[in-house]
Amino acid sequence: MNSTDNDHAPIGLLVGMGKDVMAFAFRMLVVRESGAQCAALLNVTQRNEVQTSYSLSCQDALQRLTDYNPQVVLIDCPASVPPGGPAAFVRLLEAMDVQGIASVVLAGQQFQHFEDIPEWVQVLPYHLSSDELWGRLASIQHVQQIVRRAQLEMTHMQRLGKHLNQQFAEVDQEMRLASRLQKEFLPNTLSGVPGLAFAVLYRPASWVSGDIYDVSRVDEANVSFYVADAVGHGMAASLMTMFVKRAMVSKEISQGRYRVLSPSETLTQLNDAIVQQELKNSQFVTATYCVLNHKTRQLSFARGGHPYPILVEPDGSLRELRTEGGLLGLFPGQEFPDKTVQIKPGQKLIVHSDGMEQAFVEERDPETGEPRYRQEFRRVAHMPARQFITELEQIMDYEEGSLNPRDDITVLVVEVTE
Asked: Closest Cα partner for 32 from 79, 64, 72?
C-alpha cells in the first residue's frame, strides 16, 4: 500500500470511467477509524497512481489539510456517525469548501445523512465496486484540474487587468497634462481691441483637440484671428495644431520694418510648411484666417477647406462669406484667394470648425434642409458676443449626446461694438 505523505508529486489526469488511464499520482487523505476497510477503498489505495495518507478522525484531518494539501478527502463512514463525530465532520467540510478540496463520503447502511452536508460532497454507497469508486475519484480529479486551470487563468487575467489599469491611469494622467498644455497655447484673453468684442466656444471631443484658434494684435490697426482644424481628433491631430500655431505667420519683419501679410499669403505659407514636412500619415488641415482693421472696419479673409465664415446682421439674418480654397497640406504652391468686406457696427462674424455641423442629432431641418446649427446661430444672433456663446453652450448641453461629442467644436465670434 502506498501511504507516503510526499507533497511534491506531479498532478495531472487522463480520465476514463472504469479504466486505468490516470497518468500521474494525486494525493488522497482517507479519514477512517481502525478496523476492517471497505474492499473498494482498499483496492483504490493500492493503486500506484494514488498517494494515500490516513487520519483517524475528522478533527485530525482538519489539522492536516494545510500540510498534506490533498486533492481529495475520502471519509469512510461505516457507522452511524463520521469518525470523530458530527461537529468535527461539519468543520472539516467547511474547511474543504474554503480551500476547494473535493470530498467523498463512503456511507454504510447505518450512516445518518446529515442535513448539513453540502451538495458538492459526493455521498457514495459502501457496497460500490472499486472500478466505480476509481471512476468517481478520477472524475473529481479531472474537474479539479479544469478548475485549477481556470483559477490560474483568472489569476493571470487579474494581474493583466491590474497592469492595464496602471497603464490606463498613466495614459490618463499624460492626456490630462497634454490637455492643459494645449490650452496654454490658446490666447489667455480676447479683449483689448477697441470697438471689438471676442468670444469663443472651445470643446475638444476628447482630452485634446484637433481644433485650434487664436486672436492676436498684428499692429496698432490690425488684429488677426483664425480657426484651424487638423483632420481627425485626438493626440495626432492635437500635435498637428501645435505645428499650425507655429507656422501661422501674420507679418514679415525685415531690416527693422514689417509688412502685414494678407490672409492669402499667410495660408499659402502655412500650406507650404505642412507640405515640406512630408508627413506619411496624410495630416491635412482646414483653416479660416482673417485680418480685421479695427480702425477702418475692413475685414480680409481666406479659407482652405474650412466652413465658410458667417456674417450676422443686427436683425439676426445670416450670410456666408464665400471664397475658394482647398485643404491645406496637399500640394505645394496652392493658392487661397482672399476677399475683403466692410464690417459695420452691430454686425458679428462667426468662424467655426466643422464639428459644429455634427453637434446636433437633427443635422438639418426636414422642411427647409437648413443645417440645425445655422438655426441655433439665428436663435441667439441678436445677443452680444459673450452671451451668444453662453446661450449656444446651454443649447448644446441639452442636446442628446453632448457628453460624448462626435468631433471637436470651436466657435469664434467677433462683434463690432462701435
From this structure: 79
387: nearest Cα among 365, 360, 417, 361: 417
Judgement on whether residues 365 and 308 belong to the same structural domain of the protein? yes
Q: Which amino acid does the sequence have at 242?
A: M
Question: What are the 10-residue block averages of pLDDT along the chain, 418 residues in total?
Answer: 39 38 69 84 87 92 90 88 89 88 86 74 88 86 80 89 90 86 82 86 88 91 94 81 91 87 95 87 87 93 95 90 92 92 93 87 72 88 92 86 77 91
For residue 263, how far is the Cα from the chain centroid?
Answer: 41
Dist. CA 417–CA 198, nearest whole Å: 10
Contact 273, 328 (CB under 8 A): no
Which burial class, exposed, middle or buried, applies to 242 when counting CB atoms under 10 A from its CB (0-12, 13-18, 19+)?
A: middle
Q: How far is CA 192 from the centre of its chain?
A: 42
Cβ contact 416:344 at 8 Å: yes
CB-based burial label for 408 (10 Å; 0-12, 13-18, 19+): buried
Count of Cβ atoms closer than 10 Å to residue 66 Cβ: 9
Q: Which domain holds residue 59?
A: 26-152
Residues in the chain: 418
C-alpha cell at 19: 479504466
Name the helix (H) or strand (E) containing 110.
none
Q: What is the pTM of this model?
A: 0.65
CATH of the domain at 338: 3.60.40.10
Distance (Å) of CA 268 to CA 202, 271, 334: 26, 5, 6
* Element spanning 155, H or E: helix 130-184
Question: Nearest 5 degrees, angle CA 107-CA 109-CA 114?
Answer: 55
Alpha helices in 205-352 (DSSP H): 235-247, 263-276
Same domain, 248 and 335: yes
Q: Are residues 239 and 121 in the same domain?
A: no
Give the residue from 204, 189, 219 showing the smallest Cα distance to 295: 219
Q: Is residue 129 part of a domain?
A: yes
* Single-letter amino acid, residue 15: V
Interacting residues of 217 by C-beta distance below 8 A, sequence separation 6+: 192, 193, 223
Residue 160 inside a domain? The answer is no
CA angle centred on 153, ends 149 and 156, rounded to 5°: 140
Q: Among 152, 174, 193, give the residue marking a domain's end.
A: 152
**Rounded Cα–Cα distance for residues 309 and 301 (Å):** 9
Q: 142 with 194, same domain?
A: no
